[in-house]
Write a structure and sequence with these properties.
The structure holds 2 protein chains of 2 kinds.
Chain A: H1 3-6, H2 9-15, E1 31-36, E2 44-50, H3 62-68, E3 72-80, E4 83-89, E5 99-100, H4 109-114, E6 116-117, H5 119-137, E7 140-146, E8 150-157, H6 162-172, H7 181-191, E9 197-202, H8 208-220, E10 224-231, H9 233-237, E11 244-248, E12 255-257, H10 259-283, E13 287-292, H11 297-316
Parallel strand pairs in A: 4-7, 4-9, 9-10, 10-13
Antiparallel strand pairs in A: 1-3, 2-3, 5-6, 7-8, 11-12
Helix pairs in contact in A: 2-11, 5-6, 5-11, 7-8, 8-10
Chain B: E1 2-3, H1 6-15, H2 17-28, E2 31-35, H3 38-75, E3 77-78, E4 90-96, H4 111-124, E5 131-136, E6 142-148, H5 151-159, H6 170-186, E7 194-200, E8 228-231, E9 241-251, E10 258-267, E11 274-281, E12 291-295, E13 301-308, E14 319-326, E15 336-342, E16 347-352, H7 368-376, E17 384-389, H8 396-399, E18 404-407, H9 415-426, E19 430-433, H10 445-452, E20 457-458, E21 463-470, H11 485-492, E22 496-500, E23 503-504, E24 510-514, E25 520-525, E26 538-542, H12 559-575, E27 579-581, E28 585-587, E29 593-595, E30 601-603, E31 609-613, E32 618-622, E33 627-631, H13 644-651, E34 656-657, H14 673-700, H15 704-711, H16 717-724
Parallel strand pairs in B: 4-5, 4-7, 7-8, 8-34, 16-17, 16-18, 18-19, 19-26, 27-33
Antiparallel strand pairs in B: 1-3, 5-6, 9-10, 10-13, 11-12, 11-14, 14-15, 20-23, 21-22, 24-25, 25-26, 28-31, 29-30, 29-32, 32-33
Helix pairs in contact in B: 1-3, 2-3, 3-14, 7-12, 9-10
Classes of the chains: A alpha/beta, B alpha/beta.
Chain lengths: 317, 738
């Protein structure tokens, strides 16, 4: 497996100026760039606080005592590693795609069937790029593929061959079934005990209440989340111009209609749905992005990292 | 509503199914598409389903309406309901003058064809909307087509019209047209319709006699639109034509031949010198060679005589028909004439008188009965056998076998004998009544003529004339004396009467000979039954007894031909078997039937006349061997033109007269209603199609503006980034387009 098959060099070039930072300070056992909540052991000064009984005497800043005749305790911020868990939706709805797949693409179960650049292919590209970048920073990256439940999992690791394991899972897993994100999140939470960043890549064409409860459980467990909503260009624009019979990819009953007639209503509903997903994410301090499968992956990740870095920068300043 | 092309209208209605079929076919042919966001799509469909259905039905209805409107436009609708506007709807009665003169050919086609063609042109543009009726002017005027909006029926009615042989009665036809309009109004079917009478005639003298009026008495009703009369422009040319004016046929005095005399009339604007060949034909008679009539310049009348030798006539044939024909010329209807004639046979004449042995000794005392007997049978083989009958012995037996009876002593005839004579006359016999020469008193007039069934009477007493009363120089043209008419002037000139008895009450009769003072010398009258019906016999009364004490007639050349012709022609006319004018009823033996050469049949009723009129000229033969010659009325063939002013004056009282020039359509004064409706429907079709296109576009929601507005509402990261990086070097990952 060659990295170029799943990770375009230009994508990495677009990501280079950014660093992946968690908005929340996560626990890390490895030394890294991420801020740790365990203060006092690291070398980077954070702030002064008045001494109170019980504080260690070694933490008193004697120089300040000499100048002010008051006892202050020094506090430090320790930089830690980031655990990233990438959850990719592999339900049948992710098989949808209208763009012809590019040459050189390693392929997934979805694209191999119809030679189309599907939402799952796009999600695979995003996940591969994200994993590569995290591993490049020394973070631990894990992967979960879910539909009704988590079907495949790559445990978190920062080993060099971790990326190949992740991409291997993405390219080899079948894309089928109906998505149940709540159950899948629960399964992942049972396996991730330390705080981590959950990057969920899906079309999120599911009941928003189910999504809300799932994200809520993530947030309550102290995890950070990024929702990357991958939609096909056709889904976003609904530019069909002839009456058609729509067959559901997840086994739904067929619908016969004139797309031109329902386009406005459909787009309004889609807009409403996307906004709901966005509101759900923001209500729990998460980020949400909408990706068009006809557009490049790089700008998507770059925009995400740009926003996160600036946010974390403000919190950390 | 009706249509000029009903089949297309039905096709248009049927074609309405096409958009519906296409609609459902397209529903079946929807392309399958795999889709992920089914919940969103299902909700979108649910939200728009009702609107979509309404939109679909609107578009489908518009498409159906467009097809229907196009079909109806092509079918040319004719509205007969209240939907039409009063300004343009018309009730048009086309009066077609189809008299014999309408067959005049001045070119390739007849005047009737040209007139109908002009009517078509006139109606063509309006036919889809107006109600049109057709009235034929040939006798009897009749409605060929009741007012209808069915243009096809109108066209069929016009196409069926051919020149008739019965005379044109344009005035009665116009009256019928007017009454038809009035009837339509009274029935409430002509509300709001403008009445119009189109007169398709060349207005020659045959249709409009000089000085005659075509108007009918009419009272204009307030608030009712006046009738618009649109005659075609009258013919201006006086076509040159020769026609057979009359044909006379009678047995030759020698008894072995039939003499045929044909009178020809030529008319036209410029009568140049020329010739006309005349032929005569009769069944069983070898045709004599054609005779050429050499016309001098300006000559209008000519007479041609033929002698037919009936050698090939079957034994027992009593009567033959004769047909005289001319070369074909402008008006074919006038090129034949017919006559029927009894072959030579001996007539039985009874002379009712009383004479003594001394009567013949003194010529001055020779009684009228003897003079008449000698005149009727001057020699052996004269064709008449005279039987002398005493007045006291007159009864039905005495009259049996007689063809005619001459009452020389009416003063001696008993009332019972008069009744027998009346029955004899009513049965078709000829009765000649002479004044009694014995005295001036003539008391018998009331009883005898009354019993004979005629209104004619004689004065109670004869009057003396000193100087003697002469016959008039111009004698009336009685059919009884048609055979001697050319010589009548010569024959009548020496006749003088010193004693006459005035004839009165003969207004219903015919003066055969007239005196110089205007009184009648001889009068013929048909007897009438008590119920008023006219019988076939004939009563001929004289004002002077043919005795020398009354008149010098017995010793003059007129005596023999006068009584011979009066009796012979009277017998033929009285029997009603010789001649009939086309357009009149045919007379013959009751309950018999006649058939002409073209197979047309006429049944004779109990009253001795046919129920219908004779519509065709020619020879009509009965089963019993009777032959009636049917000739066209001479006046119905007169081709002299009338001026436009004459026609306008004649038509004026009917309504507003406006002449229509040849080829002038209706567009000149009114828009084409038929075209308007078709055009309006076509415009409506285009408008519907345009509306359908716009609505389809709107309902399809294919507007780019709408699309862009909707698309811009969902911002994808890639797009945002792409905008931000327009000033930066582009980079794209897998699947990227950047």
């Amino acid at each position: 497996m060659r990295a170029e098959q799943y990770l375009a060099p230009e994508t990495l070039a677009q990501l280079a100026p950014f660093e992946l930072r968690a908005r929340m300070i996560v626990e890390g056992v490895m030394s890294g760039m991420h801020r740790s909540p365990y203060q006092g052991l690291a070398v980077e000064f954070a702030e002064h606080r008045q001494y109170s009984p019980g504080d260690g005497i070694r933490q008193i800043d004697w120089k300040v005592f000499a100048r002010t005749d008051k006892l202050y305790v020094k506090r430090y911020v320790q930089e830690t590693n980031l655990d990233v868990v990438v959850l990719v939706d592999r339900s049948a709805s992710m098989r949808y795609g209208t763009l012809e797949v590019k040459k050189g693409w390693g392929g997934t179960d979805a694209s191999r069937a119809n030679a189309r650049w599907t939402k799952f292919d796009h999600s695979t590209a995003i996940a591969a790029a994200l994993a590569y970048m995290c591993l490049h920073q020394g973070d631990r990256v894990g992967l979960g593929l879910f539909d009704q439940e988590v079907r495949a999992q790559v445990k978190r690791s920062s080993q060099r061959d971790q990326w190949r394991a992740i991409v291997g899972a993405l390219s080899g897993e079948p894309v089928e079934g109906r998505a149940q994100i709540g159950r899948s999140i629960d399964q992942m939470l049972a396996r991730v005990t330390n705080r981590a960043l959950f990057v969920i890549v899906s079309d999120f064409l599911m009941p928003t209440e189910e999504l809300r409860s799932a994200i809520a459980r993530l947030a309550h467990r102290g995890h950070d989340a990024m929702l990357i909503q991958t939609l096909d260009h056709q889904e976003l624009h609904f530019a069909l111009d002839a009456p058609a019979r729509f067959d559901g990819l997840e086994g739904e009953a067929a619908i016969e209609t004139d797309p031109r007639a329902v386009r406005e209503a459909y787009l309004a509903l889609l807009r409403e749905h996307v906004e709901k997903v966005d509101r759900i994410a923001r209500s729990f301090g998460a980020d949400a992005l909408v990706c068009d499968t006809h557009e490049s992956v790089g700008p998507v990740l770059a925009a995400l990292l740009d926003r996160r870095m600036s946010f974390v920068g403000r919190r950390g300043a | 509503m009706s249509f000029l092309h009903p089949a297309i209208a039905w096709a248009g209605v049927a074609a309405v199914a096409l958009p519906i079929i296409i609609h459902f076919l397209f529903r079946r042919r929807r392309v399958p598409v795999e889709w992920a966001a089914m919940d969103l799509l299902r909700e979108a469909v649910r939200r728009t389903n009702r609107r979509m259905k309404v939109e679909q039905w609107i578009v489908l209805a518009l498409r159906c309406l467009a097809v229907l409107a196009a079909g109806l436009a092509i079918a040319v609708p004719v509205l007969d309901g209240a939907g039409a506007s009063a300004e343009t709807r018309r009730l048009v009665i086309v009066v077609v003058d189809d008299g014999p003169a309408s067959g005049l050919k001045t070119g390739a086609e007849s005047e009737l064809s040209r007139a109908i063609g002009e009517v078509r042109t006139m109606l063509g543009a309006r036919a889809v909307r107006d109600r049109i009726g057709v009235v034929l002017a040939s006798k009897p005027p009749r409605i060929a087509l009741a007012p209808t909006t069915d243009a096809a029926a109108v066209e069929q009615a016009l196409a069926r019209i051919e020149p008739a042989e019965t005379p044109s009665e344009l005035k009665d036809a116009l009256a019928l047209a007017v009454s038809t309009i009035d009837g339509e109004r009274a029935a409430g079917r002509a509300n709001g319709e403008l009445p119009r009478i189109v007169v398709a005639s060349a207005f020659r003298r045959a249709s409009l006699a000089d000085g005659a009026s075509l108007a009918v008495a009419r009272v204009e009703q307030p608030g009712v639109p006046r009738i618009e009369v649109l005659p075609l422009v009258p013919a201006r040319d006086a076509a040159t034509d020769v026609r057979v004016e009359s044909v006379e046929a009678r047995p030759a005095p020698t008894g072995d031949a039939v003499l045929v005399r044909a009178k020809l009339v030529r008319e036209g604007a410029s009568l140049e010198a020329g010739q006309t060949f005349v032929r005569v034909a009769s069944v069983g008679v070898p045709p004599p060679p054609a005779r050429a009539v050499m016309w001098e310049k300006g000559e209008t009348d000519a007479t041609v005589e033929f002698q037919l030798i009936p050698t090939g006539v079957a034994a027992g044939t009593r009567r033959i028909g004769v047909t005289v024909s001319l070369d074909d010329d402008a008006l074919a209807a006038g090129n034949t004439g017919h006559a029927s004639v009894d072959l030579k046979r001996e007539l039985e004449i009874g002379v009712i008188g009383r004479r003594t042995s001394l009567d013949a000794s003194d010529i001055e005392r020779v009684p009228s009965s003897l003079w008449v007997a000698r005149a009727l049978s001057p020699a052996v083989g004269s064709g008449m056998r005279v039987r002398e009958i005493d007045p006291s012995s007159v009864d039905e037996r005495a009259l049996l076998g007689l063809d005619a009876a001459v009452i020389a002593r009416p003063d001696l005839v008993s009332p019972a004998a008069c009744e027998s004579l009346g029955a004899f006359a009513l049965g078709g016999g000829v009765v000649v009544v002479l004044p009694s020469g014995e005295s001036l008193a003539q008391p018998w007039g009331q009883s005898v003529f009354g019993k004979l069934g005629v209104s004619m009477r004689v004065a109670a007493e004869a009057v003396e004339h000193a100087p003697a009363l002469r016959l008039a120089e111009e004698q009336p043209s009685s059919l009884l004396l048609a055979a001697i008419r050319p010589e009548m002037g010569q024959l009548a000139a020496p006749i003088e009467s010193t004693r006459t008895v005035a004839l009165t009450g003969y207004s219903q009769g015919e003066v055969v000979l007239a005196n110089a003072d205007g009184s009648a010398f001889a009068v013929a009258q048909s007897p009438r039954r008590e119920d008023g019906g006219v019988e076939r016999g004939m009563i001929i009364g004289f004002c002077a007894a043919p005795e020398l004490s009354w008149t010098n007639l017995p010793v003059k050349p007129l005596m023999v031909p006068l009584f011979q012709e009066v009796v012979r022609a009277g017998i033929q006319i009285a029997a009603g078997r010789s001649e009939v004018v086309v357009g009149e009823r045919l007379r013959g033996d009751p309950q018999s039937s006649f058939r002409n050469e073209r197979g047309l049949a006429l049944a004779i009723g109990a009253d001795g006349a046919s129920a219908g009129i004779v519509e065709q000229g020619g020879l009509w033969r009965s089963d019993s061997g009777a032959i009636v010659a049917a000739n066209l009325r001479s006046a119905s063939l007169m081709l002299a033109p009338n001026s436009s002013e004459t026609v306008r004056t004649a038509l004026g009282p009917i309504g507003d007269v406006r002449f229509r020039a040849a080829g002038e359509g209706e567009q000149a004064d009114a828009p084409s209603t038929a075209g308007n409706w078709s055009f309006a429907l076509l415009v409506m079709t285009l408008v519907i199609l345009l509306l359908e296109g716009v609505l389809s576009r709107i309902f399809s929601h294919a507007s780019l503006r709408r699309a862009s507005a909707s698309e811009s509402s969902i911002a994808t990261v890639g797009r945002v980034r792409a905008r931000e990086q327009r000033q930066k070097p582009e980079a794209a990952g897998f699947g990227g387009r950047a």
